[in-house]
Amino acid sequence: MNKCTAFIEQHAQALADDAFEGDQRGELTARTIQVLLDSGGFRLLLAKELGGEEAHPVDFVDWVIAAGAEQPSAGWVAGVVGVHPWEISFMDPRVQAEIYGSDPNTLVASPYAPMGRARPVDGGYLFSGDWPYSTGTDYCEWVILGGMVELSGAEGNLAPDVRHFVLPRNDYEIVDDSWNVMGLKGTGSKNVRMQDVFVPDYRVYEAQKVTEGIYAAQWRPDNPLYAMMFGIMFSAAIAAGTLGIAKGALRAQQSYMMDRVSVVGSVAKTDPAYLSALAVAEADLDASVLQLRHMLAELYDHTSAGNAITPAQRLHFRRNQVRATDRVFQSFTPLVRLSGSAGIQEASGLERWWRDLQTSITHIANVQDMAYISWGIHNFGGEIPPTAFY
Q1: How far is CA 385 from CA 64, 129, 288, 377, in A?
Q2: Of 83, 12, 112, 76, which Cα lies nearest the Cα of 242?
């Protein structure tokens, strides 16, 4: 077990105790974010020269799962915010100095959806937009936002020029009361917005060059961690957050079953149907965690040997990763039904886990069809659609 995961386990009770308050507040509590910071997990994927660990990707996944198993929103923030240092580590050194120069624990939010519009001006761009789902944004001092550069004239017929724009906290507004959802309430994934904010060239990155590993090869050549590819690392972070929730949900389910007696007198802990459903869910969770860890370790061995990850490997990872998260989601459904009407009571301790798990599975990195179809098209020699996320 790595030291960051061990720290989370040592402070598990604090995370668990703050879960309900975080949901009520619509953001993590100050104590929760401090536990995550003190664990050192946000520095796991950050380059060593910037104050990070440059750790094995499996160490990062283990840390996220451990946090999510105690408090779903904490694990989700750990995964989403914690993966950003990986990308920043192969950005321009000027950006790295601005973000981490005085504090390697500086937190950076997103989202990457290209909701913004950028107009080229001398030295950079004027950037405007309104983005939902900026996870953990209240505790972040910077943000990475997706946007498209405005084209004109003959350029208007070209493919959209999607880029990542990096901005400090003073340049954008967090929209209060914009995170009203059924699950993962404590993530505080609020909207952010701005109008005609100047972003210098060195803080703007072509999305395709990020996803294809071009910047990583330029700024971190021969480094196995940064050769792991954006679609793999970001999806792994989301998968880890999802699996952490499932782990905590199954623990809550088992606790509930200890005393559960149905209206017809069926005792849950001796009910064959209930016991079988629990065993299947536990086995599927173990299989999914092992599969995610194994795939990351295998790919990291591949890049450590000096090899580039191929599109086929990326698609293979995404196929298996979405199957891993959906497997645990589907196996939990019978347990929800068997829990009866008592299970939907807030006092049961189950309904919040179920809502959070349902919410996590809707993330684009967990959507099955896109990953399955892209893999299938590739498998039969077709051209991968531009909408594929891998």
Answers
A1: 31, 26, 27, 9
A2: 76
Looking at 1.10.540.10, 3.40.50.1980, 2.60.120.330, 3.30.870.10, the CATH number of the domain 3-100 comes to: 1.10.540.10
How far apart CA 216 and CA 210 sit, in angstroms, is 7
196-212 per-position pLDDT tens digit: 999 999 999 999 999 99
Superfamily holding 108-206: Butyryl-CoA Dehydrogenase, subunit A, domain 2 (2.40.110.10)
Cα–Cα distance for residue pair 34/223, rounded to 1 Å: 30
| Residue 123: pLDDT band with limits 50, 70, 90 | very high
CATH 2.40.110.10 domain extents, the chain: 108-206
What would the pLDDT profile of 308-340 be if each residue is shown by its tens digit?
A: 999 999 999 999 999 999 999 999 999 998 888
- pTM reported for the whole predicted model: 0.96
Is-contact 78 68, C-beta < 8 A?
yes
Q: How confident is the model at residue 344 (pLDDT cuts 50, 70, 90)?
A: confident
